[in-house]
Design a protein that fits this description.
The protein is α/β, with parallel strands linked by helices. It is built from nine helices and 13 strands. The chain has two domains: about 200 residues, Peroxisomal Thiolase, Chain A, domain 1 (3-Layer(aba) Sandwich), CATH 3.40.47.10; about 140 residues, Peroxisomal Thiolase, Chain A, domain 1 (3-Layer(aba) Sandwich), CATH 3.40.47. The two termini are about 35 Å apart.
């Protein structure tokens, strides 16, 4: 039985749009990696990204970490506020009813910070509990979802999950090797909010279960560290293959307790970490191309938005192809550690959602 449902979602994106085809023109004049970057872009599956800090206008590469964190608060608050407002309206849930506000971000911190200031700006009670899930990387959306799910189950009051990622703040100083060129061309910025509440209120799909798998043997293949010039990422080309190898064990951990097999799940929301990662999931789980198209489309339009990536896919799919009543769905994320997380969802009777994406995009 589902004790928690997703009642509403909301998305807010920064205005600047970066066309990937012109990316190499932003490199320093005469940079020897221009041709390499063009090849990376051509095979990335990404057409454009949204960036809060536009590299055509500002060069953040030399900024100290302190300046980047201050900018996170300034750019992030209005995006988070817009996303949460949309999700609350869609749920619909009154802000004063919210028992927990959980902010997930691996790209910005500060106390008092975004989640503190959201309470009065959105009309939430001063007694609303706050939680910041920080620096877990791309897989953090599902630990945040788990915290909200636990709150709803324990306290029977709604919770709000906000994923706010501004990776554009962490451009590193040149020169850039191939790994850094991949990172520079991969990540985008976004804020996504979800309202979770008990099923008596109606709402969308229910959260049945969550599972996690940490591949300690390969933890050095993806990393995310605090540096003097923002946060620095390590990303091995072996990550997609390692994810593909580990996925069957994760699916067994998630599905077996419910008597399910992978082929009995028809709805798949996959973190759009990159074209090769989506390819690896499709092959590993023998999915149809149509089952991963939602993830490929978000990757094409927005790039990898770190922990906001999976919620972006879920928001889009819940509008365009919602879970059928009684049908099963899986949402999955991947990140440093090397960590894989997954959630099992189930469609509720009479919960078809409006197919329009809305002006919040």
């Amino acid at each position: 039985m589902c004790a928690t449902v997703i009642g509403g979602t909301g998305v807010a994106l920064p205005a600047p749009v970066i066309d990937q085809q012109g990316l190499s023109s932003l490199l320093p004049e005469g940079h020897e990696g221009a041709r390499t970057l063009d090849k990376i872009v051509a095979g990335s599956g990404i057409d454009q990204r949204r960036l809060a800090v536009d590299p055509r206008v500002e060069d953040v590469a030399s900024w100290p970490t302190s300046e980047r964190m201050e900018r996170f608060q300034r750019e992030g608050l209005p995006l988070a506020r817009a996303a949460v407002s949309t999700a609350l309206h869609e749920a619909p849930v009154d802000p004063e009813e919210i028992g927990l506000l959980c902010l997930v971000s691996s790209t910005g911190y500060g106390t008092p910070g975004v989640e503190t200031r959201l309470l009065p700006e959105l009309g939430m009670r001063p007694s609303t509990r706050r939680l910041h899930v920080g620096h877990m990387g791309c897989f953090a959306a599902l630990p945040g979802l788990a915290a909200c799910d636990d709150h709803v189950r324990a306290h029977r009051t709604p919770a709000v999950l906000v994923n706010l990622e501004l990776s554009s703040l962490h451009l590193q100083p040149p020169p850039w090797n191939i790994e850094q060129l991949v990172i520079n061309s991969l990540f985008g910025d976004a804020a996504v909010a979800m309202v979770l509440h008990d099923p008596e209120r109606g709402g969308g799909p229910g959260v049945l279960d969550l599972a996690s798998l940490t591949d300690h043997e390969h933890e050095d293949h993806m990393s995310w560290h605090v540096g003097d010039h923002g946060f620095t990422m390590g990303l091995s080309s072996q990550v997609p293959g390692l994810i593909g190898q580990a996925l069957p064990d994760l699916m067994a951990e998630l599905l077996s307790p419910h008597g399910l097999r992978t082929d009995e799940v028809g709805w798949w929301a996959i973190h759009p970490g990159g074209r090769r990662i989506v390819d690896a999931v499709e092959r590993s789980l023998s999915l149809d191309p149509a089952q991963v198209e939602g993830s490929r489309e978000i990757l094409r339009l927005l790039g990898n938005c770190s922990s906001s990536g999976l919620p972006l896919v879920m928001d889009s799919m819940l509008r365009s192809s919602p879970l059928a009543p009684g049908g099963y769905g899986v949402a999955m994320t991947f990140g440093p550690g090397l960590t894989l997380n997954a959630a099992l969802l189930r469609g509720r009777e009479g919960t078809d959602r409006d197919g329009g994406a809305g002006d919040h995009r």
